Amino acid sequence: MQVLNIHKRVINQPRGKVWDIVKTLSSKEDQIWPTEKWPRMRLNRGLEVGSSGGHGPIRYVIQEYLPGELIQFKFLKPKGFIGKHTIELTKIEENITELKHTIHMKTSLSGMFIWSLAIRSLHDALMEDAFDKVENHFSKNTKKQNGIHG
To answer: What is the spatial distance between Cα 83 and Cα 76, in angstroms, rounded to a whole number?
Structure first.
């Protein structure tokens, strides 16, 4: 089975500021991963090509890393997930950035069942929580800048 799963969010901030949040992924200061609700993402060498890790039962290795633009992971587990997932930042305008997460993979028969019955809905919720966290980070900063607290 072919899987193409895409999540996008337009963030009203320059790409560099959004990258400052994304580049904390899997660090002790992680500002994107919703650890309040989900198992922490861990990478053995941080954000660099060849670093491996995962979250929950999902395992992957970083295949490509372009600071400010892209992090691409290759799936290692679960068995039957053959492909990648990618986090990308695209400048739309000077102060508008698209944050995008894409899964592009083939699955074996067992992988299809795992994806369809167990992973997909959880993945979708996780990604929306992560994107909310990024967006809310900037909402908090905007409130502080405008003298609003809460």
So the answer is: 9
